[in-house]
Amino acid sequence: MKRTYIKDLTEGEHLIKGYVETIRDKKIMFLVIRDVTGFVQVTIEKDNPTYDEAKKLTPHSFVAITGKCVYSEYVRNGGKEIYPTAIEIMSIADLVPLNAESGQDLRMDYRWIDLRDEKKVFMFRIQTAFERLAVEYFNNNGFIEIHTPKITALSSEGGSEVFELKNYFGQKAYLTQSPQLYKQMSMMAGFDKTFEIGEYFRANPSFTSRHDTEFTGIDVEISFIDSHHDVMDAEEALLAYVINGVKAQFNDEYKKYFGNDIISLDYKIPRITLADAYKILKDEMNYEVPRALKGDLDPDGEKLICKYVKEKYGSDFVFIIDFPAKARAFYSMKKDDNPELTKTYDLLFKGIEITSGAQREHRYDNLRKNIEENGINPDSMIEYLDFFRYGAPTHGGFGLGITRTLVKLFDLPSVKDVTFLFRGPSRLKP
């Protein structure tokens, strides 16, 4: 008999496969069997031939059950129950080392068990739809998908937050921080608009709720732009398509698990210069970014400016634009009217940065000068500089952190909650 998923059960004979969520054995044994689509009650009376086999089961054991599905007004959660005619035990589970009170570290140690939860499965279904809708948007708008190397001879930022490979055939090599340099190369190849959904690595010894050492990002690069505002327009259109698409498909289920509606993005995202953000924080929020962090927003500043924007504009998002050149990467284009500032932006979502974007410097001489001003030897970046020697269009792009976006979409405390297997400075397994 072919397997039936639990959500597709109708009256009649079926084969279901899943794991035992709970067991209640009194005068009659009741099993709750769960698969990726839902759960169903299995009712076993003591004179049922399957009863002795069912007695061997423990919570979280995996089974295949054949039986008759019937509807009953006395059965909760859809009124379906199964009376089994055969039970095949795939495996018997030991006592599970987790319970409702288990802390996050223990849950991460046993992540595969922690994920046996319908709410968590739902979140990964949302992630799947998020990425699928992003690809759908890119396909509909003429983007080319690329897969950049994850082992590189260059560190993307020319900085130190890279994992160096100890033995790459006698050569110095790194795990990539981002596809930045290579997605720019795709512009010089004439691809015009490219995207990548890939894994990236940051050797940043940070233990915050927003940082991880391996993460999945959506990276975009676009040619023939006039300013960073064109890049923001593109990201806004992408996010509106994805978020509104997720809402259309999943809002009812989301309300069941989270108690409210998925946000909509049917408005223009406010754009505020960093200088104006500082002024708002000081004048309206009685907060000043610490001097050592000037040139950027600190986490407290991000939260407060998002609070201000939500109250004033009703927006969960805000673009912070025009960052100082000294605080941005060498490939950022400086503003013509004020070269101390750059054509760059960060996108904040509910108090956290989810994106950095910019118009890139495409002129060889200017780019080489930027590299020198950032204290980097241009000769160490010669392979990158070569991309620009043979003609380069104006271009720009952004990198969007998927886990940071999802953690705020679900209003959860940490990126660990939306990552399949989290990697951080103190976690290398499972």
Break the fold down into its secondary structure elements and pairings.
Layout: E1 12-25, E2 28-35, E3 38-45, H1 51-54, E4 62-71, E5 80-91, H2 104-109, H3 111-114, H4 118-140, E6 144-145, E7 151-152, E8 163-168, E9 171-175, H5 180-188, E10 193-201, E11 214-223, H6 228-258, E12 271-273, H7 274-284, H8 299-313, E13 317-321, E14 344-349, E15 352-359, H9 364-373, H10 382-386, E16 395-401, H11 402-409
Parallel strand pairs: 3-5, 6-10, 12-13
Antiparallel strand pairs: 1-2, 1-4, 2-3, 4-5, 7-9, 8-9, 10-11, 11-16, 13-14, 14-15, 15-16
Helix pairs in contact: 4-6, 7-8
Task: Describe the fold and architecture.
The strands form three sheets. Strands 6-10-11-16-15-14-13-12 form an eight-stranded mixed beta sheet, sandwiched between helices. Helix 4 (118-140) runs antiparallel to helix 6 (228-258) and helix 7 packs across helix 8 (299-313). Strand 14 (344-349) and strand 15 (352-359) form a beta hairpin. It has eleven helices and 16 strands. It folds into two domains: 6-91, OB fold (Dihydrolipoamide Acetyltransferase, E2P), CATH 2.40.50; 113-418, Bira Bifunctional Protein, Domain 2 (BirA Bifunctional Protein, domain 2), CATH 3.30.930.10. The chain starts with 11 loop residues before the first strand and ends in a 21-residue tail after the last helix. The chain is elongated, with a radius of gyration of 26 Å. The protein has helices at residues 51-54, 104-109, 111-114, 118-140, 180-188, 228-258, 274-284, 299-313, 364-373, 382-386, 402-409; strands at residues 12-25, 28-35, 38-45, 62-71, 80-91, 144-145, 151-152, 163-168, 171-175, 193-201, 214-223, 271-273, 317-321, 344-349, 352-359, 395-401. With 430 residues, the chain is α+β, with helices and mostly antiparallel strands. The model has no long low-confidence stretch (mean pLDDT 95).
